[in-house]
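Box 3.1 A note on notation
Throughout this textbook, protein chains are presented in two layers. The first layer is the amino acid sequence; the second is a token string describing backbone geometry. Keep the layers aligned when reading.
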Amino acid sequence: SLSSLFPILAPLLPGHGSCSRALSLAMAIQKRKAVAKSAGQLFKRSRAASKRVEEEEEQHEEEVEENQEAEKEGEEAEGGEEGEEEQESEEDALKRREEEITVARKEELKALPVGELKDLATEKGLEAGKKEDMVHALVKHEAEVRAAQRAHQAKIREVLVKKKEELEALSAPELRDLCVAAGTKGMLAKQARIELLLKQWQDNDGVDKAIAKMARDAREAELGAMDKLALRELCIKSGVECFVKEVIVERIVKHECSEGRFARPRPEGDEDEEVQPTAKSGKKAQAGDMVEALLANEANRKREREQKKQEEDAAASKRKEFRAMAVGELKKLLTAKGKEVTGNKEDLVEAAFAISVQEDEAAARKAKLKSMDIEKLKQRLASRGLSAGKKEAMVDALLAHEAKIREAAQGWEVKVGEVLEKKRAELEEKTASELKELCTAKSLKLGVGKQERVETLLEDARTNGEVDQMIAEMNKEARRDELLGMDKAVVLKIGEATGVDLLVKEVMVERVLLHEDEFGAATNGQEDEEEKKRPAKRARTGKK
């Protein structure tokens, strides 16, 4: 190398001093390059090694992470199984504790004297009997008490959690307003406000009130699931009135309205009236003997004329008979018939004649009904809602029914006149132009004057059913007032006779709940039967 030859060549070179310095500098440069080269090769090897180490470390870390995740999943699965085992173990532990308590309590009770055991059973409200039976009953009763206590604690926890969640669901301004309303001001954290409101709610018996509301809601749901008949029996047992008079009245009126009680009464015609044969038409009429048809028609007309003449002669004879009577006799006759005595003698004669005609028609009608077949008579009574019986009684019932309908029809016509007079007064207060508008709206003849328009509107009200509808509403309201004025028991009897449902489930549920709020829940029928079967308790007597 150049450095090894330098000591030998240096003295021989000209300018030994400067040459030596230049050679030294060149040697130093070469040495640095060699060192740098060797260092670069070393660094390259170390970087490659470092890269391999880093790759190995990354692969190792990935394997570690995968192992940790697998272990974590295994731990979670084991934790779930352990949680289930713990849940099951809690139930098993509770069951085991109850069994241990039951066994220990049985031994303790068996060791007591029979007298003390009877006193304990009586104190718990249980029936005294054989020792084994009393021990079993006491153990069962105490287990039920413990179960009830656990259920009560669970309800307390439930209402507390529910209230806490309710408060947590509120916003900060809402919580602040509640705190201000509770008398607490200032800056507080949300959790502090929740704790404050929750404590105040507890101090105000919030837990007991919430539990009471839960019980009442459950009872209301239980009553709502019962049918009406079961609710009615419960109302009777509890002494609660299950009917509402106003409801009964409304349902009776609705039923009677559907039955046509408030509609215009229509006197019934004779259903046995034979239909007169009519002349044939078309080709059949042309094919018949026209001469025979004309002869038959003439015979019918002759009979009708003779019958009409007989009726007119009988009417004239009857009127002549009444006219021959004195005014006092006529008044006495009308009074006996239940008619008002007003007017002059001719008015009295006409009134007496009208009564006579009605009586003759009733006598003829009665004779015709008596001649009717009894089965057909029963069918006619059934169609009118009348009960069957002996023939004479059925005939009288039909006649009374028809007379009642005729009387109702007469009363209806009187009301029609009253309604029309009232409507006339209303229409006469209107101007001619207003009446014209009413006629135009109903597509009626306009007429030429106010009075003619009034008459046109009144006739339209009579014929289109408007007056009948007004009278029906008046009758319905009168019936409603009549029923409301009756005693409740009478109204209930009428309602039950119609077969209409008179019970309102919501009313019964509400009234039972109000009764139970004050007096406690009513016992069911099974508990009452068991109470009756229990022997009477005998007083204990001590020996002297």
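The CA atoms of residues 343 and 351 lie 10 Å apart. The radius of gyration is 56 Å.
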